[in-house]
Amino acid sequence: MRCPICGVENPNNYIYCSRCGTALQVFYTTQYPQIQSTANTQDRKTMTTSLSKRGPKELTIRKILVLVIVIIVIVSSLAALYVISVFNSFMQSPHGFNLDTFLVTSNSTEWKATFDSADGTQSPSDFIYPSDWYNLSFIYITIFKPDGSLGLATKRVSDMVSGQSHNGVRFFDLHDIGFLDNGDYFTFDKDIYPSSSSVTIEGHGGTWSWSMSFGLYSWF
Is residue 33 part of a domain? Predict the structure, then answer.
């Protein structure tokens, strides 16, 4: 950069002339504004280049972090919904799939409905249910005749003395007394409960319930 006063050539970054002390930047900015404009343009280009090198990388990292967080939230939500669904299914039906049932047979005078546990378990302590799941104090029986009339109003099974008739219905508690176990059974007098009568046996606890229904008829 040439000094306009003494003519000495100075480096471009000098603010004052090295010989006479004239303010070079002020002079050239005033006299030749295009020089300052060019310098500003170069500065902007340099800054833009610097930002372009760092910006996309930082933005990509942020996008990846946000994506990871979203995926974690979605997976956690789906896992929670699945656990809740399995739990509800499990709590609403025996063995979670309602595989426990009653097998109905008959002779000339009565129907017999034998409780058939899916895993053959006889002791309630082996169940993975709440301890009172098959407690007779929480189990009720209701019977409707084929014409829709009520044959036996809802009755707590624990109130039925084992082997004694209650309006033509008897319950036999053979194993762990006080619980419905594999092999326990009901009998129904055919004179009172004709073929196709409907029986519903339900369990109700504080936080759970289950229900099994079957008809009084036999194919054999």
Answer: no
